[in-house]
Write a structure and sequence with these properties.
The chain is an alpha/beta fold. The protein has 35 helices and 29 strands.
């Protein structure tokens, strides 16, 4: 008996196309397969087949998730009955219009289409203050079958927000499920916090600590790159042995013949992407060599090859050397670019989004101002520098060198930064405990050694991040050169005297630091006692110089007002300092931030600061521009003012002359409007000529490739018309979605009420006229929804919230946008309840509308189109309606009726007599229901036909684009190979001077181009097949959302009298 009962309780397997409830969620059935072997009769009394059911999520929040289950083994699963329009209506079951309105908005806001590339979704799910120009990358991303973009906007224009919009849109459209962000170590926390705060997206930072935690939770074989769908990794961690082992496991799955996965990750984002390009090519016999891939470049390329959509972010992507830039472009889009090949200017324009602040005229970006901090060098500073120069030159002559060498330049650079940095360097150089230099360090060609080390350690190839080591790469280089002894002509006594002079400045300012202190006093405490609300950030290249500046400022009374960021500052501490520096000065005492270039990337300091001092000048222009970008960025309300120190015109001393040269260099870079990649080699040439007496090498000639790069990175002037159209579309879509502050609050309050939580409490704010609310203490199930409402400075204290976009820009008030965790949870609760077999609403309401011409029945329905593999292609909420007496109604009229019927203040509640009359009318033979069902089916069919046509057009456009891309790439590869082979014949003597590693890299690049050319036809066929499969086997799912019976005042009065 029990066996028979068990069998009878087994739910019948569903059919493809039905909607089911499994594991508490609503799914569409896309495929049902009977198992080949019957279940054991020993278990069931009689053999039964099991069914593997493939499901596609119909919840917007599940991001297109797929699930495969054995139907008979699931617990609590059921086929959801077709919840169309109700068969009958009871006069007592009408919903409150305000309540039903919240459910309708929750469904309306969850509808996402992939059919229309111009219908943006992510801007409405973003808490960022969006500007129209930030929508351009999103427009480009959606216009292509695959997203491959270089976001190269000017520093401070909001590339992180632009990338977030693209990520969110791809997730919403179900074109992506997994995302990996690769960034410098110092920016991982910033990315995690911004993605959550601005887009409601949770990312996991994968590092050694996360690996250990996942192994404790999931077992020793746990791989965090597979466990978490959205992850952030450091570009310093990625090339490591442990990271590569984890990555190999994930990449191997895509290579498996039994796997349907083509990509390890759907979206790859690389921030500060210039770090992963090969370094500038080293010299070869006085000419330029060939850029060789670094370990970081190779690691990133392996990852990029297995990612479908790729976004690379950098304001300074070009280091001035073409093959280095082409290697970066190949990682962005290997269907258009190949390392070492010529750069197709049209393709480059298509993948590059580059705007300068000066081109965005309607946003009132303030042009930066460059000012001089004058100082008068002391006599002993001039004498010490002249002594150093004399010793270096006499040592060089004694060793048969006509010019100063790299070690001399390193020593001078430290001296020009600060006497204390010079003292520390000289002591390290003199220390007998440090290892001796390598006498063979120069190798066979001294000039090449100079060039390589200058470029890599000091010039345009140096890292934009100071690593925070006690001995920086420069000191390592200096120690390596001790075998040739750049100070061999100096007696130990002379060097000790120089070191003693420099040590004399311990905790004592020199002329430059005195000028800085005077400037800080004038800005921060002009009367010497009272602190103003002004803030200043001071940058220096060296940790030793930073320590010296800080020790002097503390003596001057800046102790409590001072903060420091260096390479060894932890990520959490950096974020705390950033939060304090950006807090209101009336509430936070910090006034001065002193930082090395470890703070040159990713820390936004513009909220209450518009003054930046370059205490010294790095030789890398990109590094200097990154510094300036900390305050010269979107949101800056004052004129960004950049200070550099320069000696007053008094005498022609060598020290003053070199400092003046560096000051003019800083001014030139700070006001440069061209792409810095074109400037880098010129700066290298000028510096080495000035300090070493000769140019290490001439800047490369500007050929066709360089001109294409210059054009793409000059920024687009064709902005205004596009931006106007994008802005207009944004506002129109917002209105069509019924996205109002009142509607937002209604949805959240309804979800709180449904889950037995206290409602939001209106508290207001003196800073805005919009409604502002306090979030009450909520149950643990709502914990994730309020995470992030507190701040680093006040943990545990929830900030007030608003549903008004403008009020959300007020500091201290959080905008609850569609992507905010609080709104995501609320809409998820309402949607799940509405489509549940046990819904708490009847989905029917009745209202009396003043001014309505005809009483009518309006039905809101949801159309979902699902393609092959469960890919949701389109979702739309549509309205149909009929007059209670007569014909159907125009769509525009219906939308107006629906909005008025569900918005408080626009309607009167239908009384009991009217509700009884409407119920009787609906139940009377089902004629009214039949007319509405027929009208809904007709409208759904019409919409589906229109969407099918759009999808067909989109498919054809995607195919045409793919063919065009491959045709252009085929022609470019052919031409490039012809050119490279001719170059090999004509310039063999020059190529013979290259190092073995350079020749091998060039050979690898040529071989890779040849292989690509041979396989290109097959690659094109596979790409076309992938595009077609996206639009095949489209199936519709239609479900009723709500029924609104709207009554004229005349009918309401008549029916009231009849009762």
């Amino acid at each position: 008996m029990s066996q028979t009962a068990t069998a009878s309780r087994t739910p019948a397997p569903p059919e493809a196309g039905q909607v089911v409830q499994v594991r508490g969620a609503i799914w569409a059935v896309t495929e049902v397969e009977a198992q080949g072997l019957p279940r054991s009769s020993a278990d069931d009394g009689r053999p039964l087949l099991e069914h593997v059911v493939t499901l596609q999520s119909l919840d917007e929040d599940r991001m297109g998730e797929e699930l495969r289950v054995v139907w008979e083994l699931e617990v609590g699963n059921s086929v959801v009955p077709d919840r169309g329009l109700p068969e009958t209506i009871s006069a007592d079951d009408f919903d409150d219009p305000d309540t039903l309105g919240a459910f309708v908005d929750a469904v309306r806001w969850g509808a996402v289409t992939s059919a229309d590339p111009k219908a943006f979704q992510s801007p409405f799910r973003s808490g960022a203050t969006l500007e129209p120009y930030q929508l351009e990358p999103l427009r480009r991303a959606l216009a292509a079958p695959r997203t491959n973009l270089l976001l190269a906007d000017d520093v401070g224009l909001g590339k992180t927000i632009e990338a977030g919009l693209v990520i969110e849109e791809l997730l919403l459209r179900h074109r992506a499920r997994s995302v990996i962000i690769v960034c410098p170590p110092s920016l991982a926390l910033k990315w995690r916090d911004e993605m959550r705060e601005k887009f409601g997206l949770d990312f996991v930072i994968v590092d050694s600590a996360r690996m250990a935690a996942d192994r404790r939770t999931y077992g020793l074989a746990a791989n965090p790159l597979r466990l978490h769908p959205r992850i952030i990794v450091s570009m310093a961690w990625l090339p490591g042995v442990r990271a590569q082992r984890l990555l190999r496991e994930v990449l191997a799955e895509t290579d498996s013949s039994g796997s349907a996965r083509r990509y390890a990750f759907d979206v790859l984002v690389v921030d500060e992407a210039h770090h992963v390009a090969p370094a500038a090519p080293s010299a070869a016999g006085g000419g330029r060599g060939y850029a060789v891939d670094s370990q970081r470049t190779r690691a990133l390329r392996r990852l990029a090859d297995k990612c479908e959509h790729r976004l690379f972010l950098s304001a300074t992507p070009h280091n001035g050397y073409t093959e280095s830039f082409s290697a970066l472009l190949e990682m962005i889009d290997p269907r258009r670019f190949a390392r070492g090949a010529s750069i197709d200017s049209t393709a480059l324009e298509e993948v590059t989004v580059r705007r300068l602040k000066s081109q965005i005229t309607d946003k009132d970006f303030r042009s930066r101002r460059v000012e001089v901090l004058p100082y008068e060098p002391s006599g002993d500073e001039e004498r010490a520098y002249a002594e150093l120069d004399s010793l270096l030159r006499s040592s060089g002559r004694a060793q048969g060198r006509r010019n100063l060498d790299i070690a001399a330049l390193l020593l001078k650079k430290r001296f020009l930064s600060s006497p204390w940095a010079f003292a520390q360097t000289l002591e390290g150089y003199l220390s007998p405990t440090l290892p001796a230099g390598d006498p063979d360090w120069y190798g066979d060609d001294v000039d090449d050694a100079y060039d390589d080390y200058y470029t890599e350690v000091m010039g345009s190839g140096q890292s934009d991040e100071e690593e925070g080591l006690i001995a920086q790469p420069e000191l390592d280089t200096l120690l390596a050169t001790r075998g040739s002894d750049p100070l061999s002509a100096a007696t130990r006594e002379q060097l000790e005297d120089l070191a003693q002079w420099a040590r004399g400045y311990q905790s004592r300012p020199d002329s430059r630091l005195e000028a800085l202190v005077s400037m800080l006093d004038a800005v921060c405490r002009p009367d010497g006692r009272t602190w103003t609300n002004e803030r200043v950030v001071v940058f220096t290249e060296y940790a030793d110089t930073l320590d010296w500046i800080v020790s002097v400022l503390r003596q001057q009374g800046y102790g409590e007002r001072l903060a420091v960021i260096r390479g060894s500052t932890s990520a959490d501490e950096r974020e705390d300092i950033r939060a304090r520096f950006n807090a209101d000065p009336a509430e936070e005492d910090m006034r001065v931030l002193v930082a090395t270039d470890a703070a040159g990337e990713g820390i936004d300091l513009q909220t209450y600061c518009h003054r930046l001092v370059n205490f010294d000048v790095p030789f890398n222009p990109s590094r200097l521009e990154q510094r300036v970008g900390r305050i010269d960025r979107y949101g800056q309300r004052e004129t960004p003012t950049i200070f550099y120190l320069a000696p007053v015109a008094s005498g022609e001393g060598l020290y003053a002359g070199h400092q003046d040269f560096l000051g003019r260099l800083a001014e030139k870079i700070a006001t440069e409007t061209r792409d810095l990649g074109a400037v880098n080699p010129l700066i290298d040439e000028q510096i080495t000529t000035r300090f070493l007496g000769r140019s290490l090498r001439k800047a490369p000639t500007r050929g066709r490739d360089e001109k294409a790069i210059d054009s793409a990175l000059a920024g687009s002037g064709r902005l205004n018309q596009q931006l106007t159209a994008l802005a207009r579309g944004y506002e129109q879509t917002k209105a069509a979605m019924h996205l109002t502050p009142q509607a937002g609050r209604r949805v959240v309050d309804e979800a709180l009420t449904m889950t037995h939580q206290p409602p939001l409490e209106e508290v207001g704010s003196e800073l805005t006229d919009a409604s502002v609310f306090a979030v009450p203490d909520l149950a643990r199930s709502w914990e994730d929804a309020v995470t992030g409402l507190d701040t680093r400075l006040q943990p545990g204290r929830l900030r007030p919230v608003t549903f008004d976009e403008e009020a959300g820009r007020v500091p201290g008030i959080v905008h609850v946008h569609l992507g905010h965790p609080l709104m995501r949870k609320s809409t998820r609760i309402l949607r799940a309840n509405l489509f549940s077999p046990h819904s708490e609403v009847s989905r029917v309401t009745a209202v009396v509308l003043p001014g309505l011409e005809h009483s009518c029945a309006a039905s809101m329905s949801r159309l979902v189109l699902v393609g092959r593999g469960g890919l949701r292609l389109h979702e739309q909420v549509f309205v149909t309606g009929v007059r209670l007496r007569g014909h159907r109604i125009a769509e525009d009229t219906l939308h107006a009726v629906l909005d008025r019927s569900l918005d408080p203040g626009s309607y009167r509640l239908a009384g009991p007599e009217v509700r009884r009359h409407l119920a009787a009318l609906w139940n009377d033979g089902g004629h009214l229901r039949t007319r509405l069902v027929e009208e809904t089916a007709r409208r759904a069919q019409s919409l589906q036909a229109g969407v099918h046509q759009s999808l067909d057009e989109r498919c054809q456009a995607d195919l045409d684009r793919v063919r065009g891309i491959f045709a252009a790439f085929r022609a470019n590869l052919t031409d490039s190979l012809t050119h490279l082979r001719a170059q090999e014949r004509e310039q063999q003597a020059m190529l013979d001077l290259w190092s073995g590693e350079q020749r091998q890299q060039r050979a690898r690049d040529i071989r890779a181009m040849e292989d690509r050319l041979e396989d290109l036809a097959g690659e094109e066929t596979r790409e076309e097949a992938a595009v077609r499969s996206r639009y095949e086997d489209v199936r519709p799912y239609v479900s009723s959302v709500a029924l609104v019976l709207a009554v004229t005042e005349e009918d309401a009065e008549t029916w009231g009298r009849q009762s």
